[in-house]
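Step 1: inspect the first sequence and its tokens.
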Amino acid sequence: MLLSSYRLGNLTLPNRLVMAPMTRARAVDGKPIATTATYYAQRATAGLIVTEGVHPNEPGQAGPFMPGIHNAEQVAAWRVVTDAVHANGGRIFAQLMHGGRIGHVEVAGHHPVAPSAIASTSEVFTPTGIKPAPVPVALTASGVRDQVRAFGDAARLAVEAGFDGVELHGANGYLIQQFLSSNANQRDDEYGGSVAGRIRFAVEAVEAAVDAIGADRVGIRLSPGGQVQDIVEDDVPALYSALLRALPDIAYIHVLATADDDVLMGLRKAWPTAFILNPGGQIGPHESTREQGERWLANGADLISYGRAYLGNPDLVERFRLGLPLVSTDRETWFQTEAGYVDHPSYQH
């Protein structure tokens, strides 16, 4: 079943494997480099590729060497990547990722912004090393609306750059999940407090992207109950059920297995369009397996996303098809290094 085709929005996927978004931190001046096109093109046999997080505006940059999509030069650089993927027969969405309070003035030249002036207890990457996360500037109501518009503007530029669509990053402790959170979001206006208030930013950001490029080109990634980067969410089933009811019928939701199976199954049943499940949940010590993917397809998921397994196995689809062993990667090569990026070959028979 994992190798069967699937219709996603206006795309026909040849299989149900999704290459999950993974930070690789190799951009220069906010632009992907030439080997980024090679990296994604090598993996074009995936049913769908979702890129590493791409910041939708300057304040949204979470760390150094991360690419953006908010100016003409970045659009031109991404066009090289999308052309390469399409030339190899692939399909590719850009993940729009706003770091919110996960950032630093040394990274973006802007002080981080967030729902409330509450720092994460996690550390952040800067050009001069790892540092404590700073206290962010609490967004005004008009400032919140500026960030909403940034997602719509970035979605429009992504399509201009040749992407088949966009995925909003609503997981892993970044801006959208900060609004969903009950500890990072202490607002008492329409964007905080109640469940309806805490889901408002996510819904409006998705609506901005839909207005820009159409619902069939938009997805959102979620990590219900995930605690990455000091996130706490109260009453996860009620929070995410309300969110799913309020979202427009976009192409998909992409859910990390950060909650128990009952919660995930409830979300699957509540969502009317494609449901992508990442069985690895938060970053773990091992690559997810074909068996995990098949189990979740049998439980109602439509597509399965793989992260770490795609780092060392650009031909992951073929390895699953033939039952070939997977190559593990060295964490030291995940970010910035020349090694470990495009030098993992396909299986040699």
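Step 2: inspect the second sequence and its tokens, then contrast the two.
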Amino acid sequence: MSTVDLTTADFETTIADNEVVIVDFWASWCGPCRQFAPVFAAASERHPDIVFAKVDTEAEQALAAAARITSIPTLMAFKDGVLVFSQPGALPSAALEELITAVRGLDVEAALREAAAGERQGA
């Protein structure tokens, strides 16, 4: 599957309707973004069961602000509608593959229970 462009109008629906969504926040003037684009596109071809989405931060400024994007490229990964990874910077291909493997294997419900238990202990 090739990458899809996300807008404010379809962002939440895309996240909610797909098991795994990996989002690249980028801009055309950003050198690291342009260098990362072929790595992201190649991963989308290797993993057709995952939605690989791109958000042009210039065209979608409100969406970028809502996502609290302060540096580009920023990569976000969602599983079962939950944000499970967010990091600025372009990843090399091997690191992106490691991220994909980790997201696929993540038990979101268990992770949420663990996080809630940790918060209760710290309170």
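Step 3: confirm your contrast with the notes below.
The CA atoms of residues 75 and 87 lie 5 Å apart. The mean pLDDT is 93.
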